[in-house]
Design a protein that fits this description.
The chain has a single domain, classed as 2-Layer Sandwich (Nucleotidyltransferase, domain 5), CATH 3.30.420.40. The protein is built from 4 helices and 5 strands; from the N terminus they run E-E-E-H-E-H-E-H-H. A 5-stranded mixed beta sheet has the order 3-2-1-4-5. It is globular.
Length: 104
């Protein structure tokens, strides 16, 4: 089970992660608190991380790139277009994952 792509939804204190493997099978859906973010991504091998652009997205993108991950920031319109019916952190992280693999 090697995680290749992660969709990450950022918030003030709770972050939602949706991770998939090489075949596109969901292997991890998890909530992390702010203090759990760095330890989680430090242990993880390098992968592609899709983040919806927001106020703190650039900070987290720089931090994750420093840990060896590849990060794609995407406009909210691209992420929300996929999951406009149900607005929740879990759906946003799934949308971030989908768009990080298809958006260039």
């Amino acid at each position: 089970m090697k995680i290749t792509t992660i969709g990450l939804d950022l918030a003030k204190s709770v972050f939602q992660i949706h991770a998939v493997d090489e075949q596109g099978v969901s292997v991890l859906v998890k909530r992390l608190r702010r203090k759990q973010m760095l330890p989680f991504f430090t242990k993880l091998s390098s992968c592609l991380i899709g983040i919806e652009a927001c106020g703190s997205a650039h900070h987290w993108a720089r931090t994750l790139v420093a840990l060896g991950h590849e990060v794609k920031l995407m406009p909210p319109a691209y992420v929300n277009r996929r999951h406009h019916l149900i607005r929740s952190p879990a759906h946003c992280s799934t949308g971030s994952h989908i768009m990080s693999t298809s958006w260039k």
